């Protein structure tokens, strides 16, 4: 979607701005640059996962296994770190990305080759991944004192004023912006979701594109797995439990059409930031965390209703028969 | 062309459509047509694809509203606001693809929407099965009311549809190509059933392309051509040849572009393509600069074969030679890289990607050429898109405009531009002018001739006889998945095409298959 003024993103950015102004009116410290940087850092895992999820949703699929993938990869790299404390962190990160990608590839193969509906596949692998964590860890936690200082230190390491965790999100955003706009893969993703039939006639392999979307989503879940476990310095079976729904919510709020084909990197990032701001602002202004759920839920419904209205204009019927049938 | 005088029987028709007009954006689907259906008689509605038969059925069943004209039932003018109104008036249709529910039982399918109720407003299951069993016995169905629908074959599903028609006490039964997927024996059983319905005084509208069955079971005929009424009368008063002439006779004198017809060397040779169910023994060759027409009735296997040629489905056997080299096409990507492109029939579904801007739609199959070191170059993309949109005279405010905001005709240009931008050798056009008006048709024909003149080989799948004859250098007629005839020059006449396509064996021409 290339427009000079991306309407949906502008509205969403406006909503975040209004939210910030409202919070600032009661607690000006919230909008101090250092605090905003903290909010961004706190939202970084959600941003990374939302971008992976966006790719999957654009191809008319969904990946419910991201949080379980994150937890499994996180546990795996934590255990590797305990077993081999000397292993350099870049290697750990590479392992996390590859392992996450491999787990994503399992989803992808099941969707591509066996044509099982994505929601069923990822619901299944979600449970399986959690089960595997229990098997490899015997249900035990990996605690901070077992991890090497380098392992837990990297996400907090400050480079040019921002922690590595924030930089990971920024680099991911940058790479995705290029991938979606400037590569054949990115274009294929839009084509597959926008009109799978046309994509087939164009020579694009729909199943293969969906497979790679799952691999991308899985790889980002793997990356986030390391970042998450090292940031909180703990790994156990249930980390990031239910986080997949927050990831999907970020995409939906960000205007990624759940029917596929419509969405943008900017939308996914803003959707994640919206949820991040809500989550961080409510405790500050003394609103019960229970409201957070209600506000997130309302935001999803408003976003979907808004997108459905916009989508109706988009889905213009050009076939005379269908038009006559109205 | 003969116009036998309508021979009005003594009885009054149950349904009488008069001066019916129906316009879709850009197309007049029905223009002042009339159709009468008499009790206890089978009326065959005859016409080519696009003659307006389906539109008529949809009007009769309340799916479409008419733009003009009157429908009378028992002499009283009626108007159907919704499909339910037509059902209440006793009109029911049995469609080509029967609209039934696989996961429900036969009885539930028969009574869905009007099931007998108990005192408490719940469905009276035992009464429903009792009534359904009675209906099934009446039509001699070889299964019981508890059978799950998905266990039944197509013929038996038709019986369920007929039972459903009887259950609402329909007086008018519309059968839209009911025998298309039936075996010989099943067809005979269906004929018996039609006789039963006739004896109960129901009016039957029978739509079929098969002349033998029209003459076998119809009492009356009505002929439409290009959305206009041509004639009607009693089957007993007309010969098969005359009916064919009425059906195909050209109403509008379309002008087709003059072409040189000088074709070059062989570009594509298809040898022994076979598919387990859709087609077999497909052999033909295609030359440079040639327009090869593929004619046949709906379901003759033309599109299915083209999809196999393009690599979307896999044939069980067969190879093709492209410029003399044996080439195996396993996927559409293979086909595109070998210079074969396919412009599918349903452009809304298979053509443009609504949501991508125009230029990205045009460059979609050519992304390799607009990339540098794996990155798409927007300037290159715009250049390519601009070149081909200018060649096709695409009317759009800007190339980065969403393709969904274009008119149907301009969307079609985007789809064609997309294919031309791949610089193909062979272009397969599936029903290129279906559903567009005469003016746009002429433009498409002009353009097709231009492509051929530039040395592109065109395969044109078309069900419109004037177009097939007017545009093609050579015509292949397909019937039931096989090549029935290959015709050119002097052999190209509407009558001969229809004979081969419909398999009328009584003709002196004989059959190639």
TrEMBL record, chain A:
InterPro entries: ABC_transp_permease. PANTHER family: ABC TRANSPORTER PERMEASE PROTEIN YPHD-RELATED-RELATED (PTHR32196), RIBOSE IMPORT PERMEASE PROTEIN RBSC (PTHR32196:SF72). GO terms for cellular component: plasma membrane. The keyword Metal-binding does not apply. It is a multi-pass membrane protein. The keyword Lyase does not apply. This is D-allose transport system permease protein AlsC. Keywords: Cell membrane, Membrane, Transmembrane, Transmembrane helix. It is found in: Cell membrane. It holds the Pfam family BPD_transp_2. GO terms for molecular function: transmembrane transporter activity. The chain crosses the membrane at residues 42-59, 89-112, 119-137, 157-178, 210-229, 250-278, 290-310. It comes from the Bacteria.
From TrEMBL, chain B:
This is Ribose import ATP-binding protein RbsA. The keyword ATP-binding applies. Its EC number is 3.6.3.17. SUPFAM superfamilies: P-loop containing nucleoside triphosphate hydrolases (SSF52540). It is a peripheral membrane protein. It is found in: Cell membrane. The gene is rbsA_4. The keyword ATP-binding applies. Keywords: ATP-binding, Cell membrane, Hydrolase, Membrane, Nucleotide-binding, Repeat, Sugar transport, Translocase, Transport. Coiled coil: none annotated. Residues 15-251, 258-505 form the ABC transporter domain. One of its GO terms (cellular component) is plasma membrane. Its main location: membrane. One of its GO terms (molecular function) is ATP binding. It comes from the Bacteria.
